[in-house]
Amino acid sequence: MYLIGEFRDKAAVRTAICMLRAGGLSSVDLDLFSEEPVEFPQGVLDRPSRMSLAAVAGAVVCGLLATAFVYWTQHNYKLVTGGMPVFSFWATGVITYEMTMLGAIVSTFGWFLWESGVIRKRDKSAPVPDVDPGSICLRVRCRAEEAALASEVMSRSGAIGIERRGEA
Amino acid sequence: MTTAPELLPYSRIREDLFRPLSGISRSYLLATLAALVIGAAGLVAWGYQLRRGMGVTGLQRPVFWGFYIVDFVFWIGISHAGTLISAILRLIDAAWRKPVTRAAEAITVFALMIGGMFPIIHLGRAWLFYWLLPYPNARMIWPNFRSPLLWDLTAIVTYMTGSVIYLYLPLIPDVAQLAKHNMTWRRALYRALSLGWTGSDREWHALERAMKLMACIILAVAVSVHTVVAWDFSMALAPMWHSTIFGPYFVAGAIFSGIAALLVVLAALRKILHLELYLTQRHFHNLAKLLLLMSLLWFYFTVAENLTVWYGNEPKEMAVFGARTRAHYAPYFWATVFLNFVVPFVLLSVRRLRTIATATVASVSVLVGMWLERFVIVVPTLANPRLAAASSLYTPTWVEIAITAATFAAMVMMYLVFSKLFPIIAVWEFKPHKEEED
Fold first, then answer.
1. Which residue of B has its CA nearest to A95?
2. How many CA atoms lie within 13 A of B176 on its CB side?
């Protein structure tokens, strides 16, 4: 099941998260909803990311493919170059560079869509709270027997309202 | 004393920044109409050129690059406004950037769309533009990837893709808000663009990470794009083109004209959309300082480029140098120096004189000056080739002038439409803060 606690204060949310995690809930079970980014120090609610890795991988793959493509096209119809190389990396380096960058751009965007969950909802049954401007909602996924404790923790931390929704 | 916008309640910020999206004022209608008329005149001119051929332009042997290539270089330069400035300010986390970034990013996308049209217009037979794409022709010959013109195509496609994504990413939270509160026909558009954004911390984390990465990547791409545009010229063994400083010279010029374009756009938005509270003297002051810095850098490059040629005294280069500084093209060259260096230096170097009005005047001066600078770089070299007997003059026709004017109208038009569909300042970035680090 889900509990949704509404907070007005970032510090209160942080306290609630720390206490809930100390109580055995993992960061996967906790989600914050707000109209602005809420940042906490490291260790409170970390969201590990491989976006940089994806960008580098995309760049390398796209750069290599572009170079291979240029190499192949220049060997596919060999022009008379008067002894100069048919394929010259220096003369086609700009293509390699730009395609490398294009790979990084596209994979960053693709990874953003994937990691943020906008094209891959992890749990379609999970309720999404309506967030009022200035407030922060903490959604907790827990078992029914943990709900009372989680609710009490949020209440003690400064939640101004707690709502129970759905089944986990 | 007015309240800093960051200290205003969130509801007020949202109301102020979403307000310009509804209702159409008389000045907005007039501006749209004027832009439409000028744009239509440009379309008629292009249609005439397509029908009658390139003979209707002033392009003739040996000057085959004229207004269209000048416009191409100019608009690609303007496109550096946005993404570059926005990326730098985002990476150094300058708090004053908030009202500036989206306006700047939009300039990039629109200027690239306009600049990217010119190679097609310049082709003459525009319907064969797909010959530029990497696919083999009937004899199975692929495009020549060693050609700087193909480098251009690749660089612009990459920059365009990156700039559109860079503009779109921070727009997502705002369109999600708009989708929630909008009841008109736009709701479907906003819902589609928001991709089901819920405002969860996973989404915010991914967005901020993506923005940082994109800022780094786009910086590298932006520098390369104008360097490649410079290489279109410097890879040719033509007098006063074959220069090693052309890459950085063009990049500096692009950033220079980009900042000027941004200042003009911000001044117009401030006035038309009544954003005086958000676009303050401070933003103009900071951008004017950047403009002054780039003006000095531009002047340094111009002196370095011309002094080397003059000192070398190589006859073919001196023919171009003479045409630029003493003969037919001298008024344009000296106007360039006056508009790009003297005017900004006088208006912006004294702190007391650095106001919103003077920054706007200096920016308009720089825009005109930078367009002329591109003209002075492109035309005199072609008009004075190595074969002296082939020398000629270039005079543009009404077709080229109409198409050039239409591109400015197109820029205005696209901006007007954009400012009615999306908030021109990122609302979510204006979260209320008790204190703001600059």
1. B151
2. 22
